[in-house]
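This part of the workshop introduces the protein records we will be handling. The structure tokens are whole numbers drawn from a learned vocabulary of backbone shapes. The record below serves as our worked example for the rest of this section.

===
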Amino acid sequence: MKIDRRSALGLIGAGAAFSSTGATAAQAAAVRFDHGVASGDPTAQGAILWTRVTPVDAAHAAPIAVRWHVAQSADAKPIESGEAQARPARDFTVKVEPKRLKPGQDYVYWFEAADGTRSPNGRFRTLPEGKTADAVFAVVSCQLHAGGYFNAYRSIAQRDRVDAVIHLGDYIYEYGADGYGTEIGSKLGRIPEPAHETLTLADYRIRHAQYKRDPDMQAGHARAAFICVWDDHETANDSWIGGAENHQPATEGDWQARKAAAMQAYFEWMPIRDAQDGNPWEAINRSFDFGDLATLMMVETRLLARSEGAAFKGETPGADEIAAVLATRNRADRELLGEPQRAWLEQGLTASVAAGKPWQILGNQVVMARVAGPDMAKLFGADKAKAMLASLDPSLRPRVEAAQAGYRAGLPFNLDAWDGYPAARERLYASFRQSGSRPLVLSGDSHAFWANDLADDAGRPVAVEFGTTGITSPSIGDAMPALPIGDLLAKANDEVLFCDQRAKGYILLTLTPQKAHAAYIAMSTIYARDYSERQIAAFDLAADAREAKLQLASKDPSTTSGQ
């Protein structure tokens, strides 16, 4: 079932959509701005500006009037202002959009309530037009609040130049206090709110509110506009068009109702442009032009068209189940993007190439490279592989041994990535060729750093992929520190140039007409507020060659402290 904005009004109330009105139409109230400010979806004339107004009186139930302002600096006179209402139907969140700004400029913004309370300041940069010398992005993904501190956002906030933050999904996680990663959260005092798994609109709102109260999250949002897409955990783990691995209808109700609640909370709490009338909420694929330099196209690979995953029912599958999963995986009708979105993407890539832009960037949730699971016996010999398996925690060893059997039978490393949908990937690669583009693909989801040269089934190069690790979310490398998983994957796969399955951080991507430079920035820790950061690898990608070349970080890298 598609949920469009018009039919959704029955779920969220007719007053939910933002409408700019005079301050006299809303009740004045004592308020706080507990969740900071955020901006997103920049244009050449503005951006979406967001805040959440928290009434001091928790029982307050009337709309609250606010004013918003945009200026060239924090102490300058506003050059564009307006009025808005924080409505209970939107959980007292506000989204507005200035439309009279200049392209390629930095701006400061803030909100004010009728009682005089002022929000923190935020910054954003409008999209450039015409000749553009460069663009700088922070590429992020996967931020489990219970998994550790958001030190990467503090790092991003302290950078001199960030034009936009590209967020590739898993902004929140749905698990409760007894779920994924919460053994760390219990030690750090970062227990999920609510304590149970998120199922209802109230649950998802509370979870978003917890994330937005984090001081480092607020600092990141205040630094630059976010360009976001969701992945699976904004609804539930391994979600697809008809359900999710972490949704059990018998005990958790109707999937469509849960999905609608999750999407409503997302649109309320994120600085993203609301869906237009006639478009389904799931269709958050959209594009951004950075002058004559680049086109960024954000795709949706979860709720719009994704077929059900080819997954095992247990942790130690037998040969028959492995064969059945392989047969499902290889079906030609399985989708990730869907035909309308693929056609939209091909058209956008074609137009960008025709306009002479050197870069087409694809903001995509899951790893696109073909990544075979490492057959340790093949890589190291039977005896050494046996010894490496014996060194693992006994609770993990049976699962790893079962995975090894699957890899030998032809299973990829991750069935939830594009590797689980090879026919859909070939259709996408055909669109790349048809458009004349060899795009730069950005990927999240995996909680690992990647640099991959992508090729189609015929071995023809089609694109280059930079995969960003998690802000905090644990990885397979964390669970099995005795195994050098990243190195094993690079050795086992021609498409994988580099993989780090342990580091947490982000990619700092700088584009010029001549090259793309991707710096992989790792935090020294996510378990303490004090941290250092270092560049663990860097890649230069020539605009005309599109061949990633690994440049390792210095053996004695300089570090910068974060507080």
